[in-house]
Amino acid sequence: MRFTAENLRIAEEIVARYPLKKSALIPLLHLAQEQDGWVTNEAMEHIAELCEVTPAEVIGTGSFYEMFKFHPVGRYVVNLCTNIACQLLGAEELLHHAEQTLGVKAGGTTTDGLFTLEDVECIAACTEAPCFQINYRYFNRTTPEAFDEVVAAIRSGKDPLASHGNSADPGPLPPHGTLARTRQSIPADRLGGIIPPEEATEPVWLARNQQGDAANG
Length: 217
Description:
Helix content: 40-55%
Order of helices and strands: HHHHEHHEEEHHH
Shape: globular
Distance between the termini: 54 Å
Number of strands: 4
Number of helices: 9
Structural class: alpha+beta
Oligomer: single chain
Strand content: 5-15%
Strand order of the largest sheet: 2-1-3-4
Largest sheet: 4 strands, mixed
């Protein structure tokens, strides 16, 4: 679907941060995915209108990044790494176990729409292998038993991060598409300068800092 009234307000605020509207493409793709759990065709058309580009440019940008999904996925997307470091420490076996636990092959979504399982490349936690992510939150040095505990916690409505000993991100795991619990807000006096690039002579933030240094003696 297109942006809701509230998300349209947020989208317009995001677009206003940039001297070129098309620079807001990626933040708006994230907003669309947060709204619906994936990026719909209608959302891409709406983003194209807001950024004054074509829908082809929107999907051309978004399809470069694995995190954007252009088809329905589960509420919780499981990214299980099978690259070399994880593979040497049992990731292939862990993937087969995950397939049995969830009842789907890699690339599939459970019938209840709760989980999508993905076999992925390196997720930059090689020293913590084997590891997986759920909605891009890390579960490190894991085992088949630990995987089952995380899945059981989610199914019972509990916090899987707490049950896995991760206190850095407290509270229930947000659904797929939600990157952060607090939305970024930039005060008007801290913006980098909303002028077309061809009119810029020096970075506005640099001039602002130099003025501040001079005022401070």
